[in-house]
Amino acid sequence: MKTALFEYRMGSGWSVDSFPELDAENTLVTVFGDRGFWEDQAPFGELREAYPTAQIVGCSTAGEIHGRKLSDASLSVAVVSFDKTPIKTAVSSAAADDDSREVGRSLAERLDDERLSNVFVLSNGLNVNGTALVAGMNEVLDDAVKVTGGLAGDGEAFERTWVLYGDDVSLEQTVAVGFYGDDIVFTHGSQGGWDRFGPERRVTKSEDNVLYELDDQPALDLYKRYLGDHADELPAAGLLFPLEIHEPASPDKRLVRTILAVDEADHSLTFAGDMPEGWTAQLMKANFDRLVDGAERAAEHSAGENIHQGPTVAFAISCVGRRLVLQERTEDEIEAVADLLPDGAGLVGFYSYGELSPHDAGEPCDLHNQTMTLTVISERP
Asked: Three-state secondary structure along the chain?
């Protein structure tokens, strides 16, 4: 396996004089970039020209991770050429809420094969139900197949997100990359770091990812009472106060949900993933130190499982809510991750509207919010 990392910055161009010569059928090029590249798509054409047979995927972000730094108005690019691992990509142009489960099923069916071992997914970040998306994939794929990835971001705007497939940029599509065989080492970790506060409440009325009532009270009204002065800043303010949910019968498996939209007419909240009726919900707030500690634990869980030292690339996907809370300390969590990676490992990634990862090793993929999720990839020698 061979890797190369480089950047593109608006106004100054590429950080390399020439693209590394790694084009091949089993080369993966990932591109994480600013929302503004919807208007300026020329760099994607340049990558396609340089890597005509490679698999190229990417998405918009709420901040680009490249090495130990965080950037805006840039593209963070990783080129990974596999020696022994075949790869394949699938794309779906449908990403509306009602189609999310079928999108997941369709992508999984096109990648499914007895040698499939891992899948990396990048999806539209606004018009998708992440819970349904991964549920559809889980219905098709064998339990042993690990699925990770993330939902595209749009900074704090929540207006549009794009996904890249080849040199085609779309506001709708979802892409998935399949990795095949036993030579790939694909490890993952996902951790939060938020504190719960206030009483636990029961989800008494919901439909998929739309929450109408908590404890038989209008969800938006109750949520606004907790937010106080921040209520006028919704939905962006919801990133600072996510909800943690769990099934009463499984209190140890807790998921975090972030608000994507509010509806004043029916007093509802729309989240990035499902809010099942009967589940328990509790408000959360930031703990600066625990957010950084959470990123470190994610790195420990993933990089710590790597079975050898060698060329390695890590994809870090962290929630935009964490960036809004950490602000000037955001690079602290990136540093915490980088410090625990194998020597010489490349680190790229982005701030997202949702993270896809198993909750624990051996479990199926789930949608997470407000977490740092890490996927570490290498090949056996």
From this structure: CEEEEEEEECCCEECCCCCCCCCCCCEEEEEEECHHHHCCCHHHHHHHHHCCCCEEEEEECCCEEECCEEECCEEEEEEEECCCCCEEEEEECCCCHHHHHHHHHHHHHHHCCCCEEEEEEEECCCCCCHHHHHHHHHHHCCCCCEEEEEECCECECCCCCCEEECCEEECCCEEEEEEECCCEEEEEEEECCEEEEEEEEEEEEEECCEEEEECCEEHHHHHHHHHHHHHHHCCHHHHCCCEEEECCCCCCCCEEECEEEEECCCCEEEECCCCCCCCEEEEEEECHHHHHHHHHHHHHHHHCCCCCCCCEEEEEEEEHHHHHHHHHHHHHHHHHHHHHCCCCCEEEEEEECEEEEECCCCCCEEEECCCEEEEEEEECC
The end-to-end CA distance of the chain, in Å, is 9
From the list 161, 184, 15, 231, the residue with the least C-alpha distance to 88 is 184
Residues 112-168 have pLDDT tens digits of: 999 999 999 999 988 888 889 999 999 999 999 999 999 999 988 889 999 999 989
Preceding peptide of 235 cis, ω within 30°? yes
Contact 255, 131 (CB under 8 A): no
Q: Could you read off the pLDDT of 172-198 as tens digits, one per residue?
A: 899 999 999 999 998 888 877 778 888
Give the pTM.
Answer: 0.84
State residue 114 phi and psi, 5-degree precision: -65, -20
Q: CB of 294 within 8 A of CB of 193?
A: yes
